[in-house]
Amino acid sequence: MIIHIGLETVQLKGEHFDVFVEENQKISQGEPLIKFNNKAIKKEGYKLITPVVITNSENIEKIKFNESLSITHGQKLMELKYIKRGV
């Protein structure tokens, strides 16, 4: 999964972001991924539209989205049901 917080925010080179996980790291539900200062990012002129891209969709049977326009701490963005494969 790729989560890109804000549009063109890569130009900030990590400023205003604290990342708690590494690429390819296994995570658990409720584990914090990133913290960011939305006020500082907006003040610098960036929009906080956040695309979420699922990169292994061939392994997912069903996706249920939270259809709210904004998600706050503790709310689910989506639920994924993975395809069960033989062991």
From TrEMBL:
Subunit structure: Heterodimer with glycerol kinase (glpk).
Any single GO BP term: phosphoenolpyruvate-dependent sugar phosphotransferase system
InterPro entries: Dup_hybrid_motif (IPR011055), PTS_EIIA_1_perm (IPR001127), PTS_EIIA_component (IPR050890)
Signal peptide segment: none
Pfam families hit by this protein: PTS_EIIA_1 (PF00358)
Keywords from the named record: Kinase, Phosphotransferase system, Sugar transport, Transferase, Transport
Organism: Staphylococcus saprophyticus subsp. saprophyticus (strain ATCC 15305 / DSM 20229 / NCIMB 8711 / NCTC 7292 / S-41)
One function term, GO molecular function aspect: kinase activity
General function of this protein: The phosphoenolpyruvate-dependent sugar phosphotransferase system (sugar PTS), a major carbohydrate active transport system, catalyzes the phosphorylation of incoming sugar substrates concomitantly with their translocation across the cell membrane. The enzyme II complex composed of PtsG and Crr is involved in glucose transport.
Keyword Translocase: no
Gene3D superfamilies from the UniProt entry: Glucose Permease (Domain IIA)
Name listed for the protein in its UniProt record: PTS system glucose-specific EIIA component
PANTHER family found in the cross-reference section: PTS SYSTEM GLUCOSE-SPECIFIC EIIA COMPONENT
GO cellular component, one term: cytoplasm
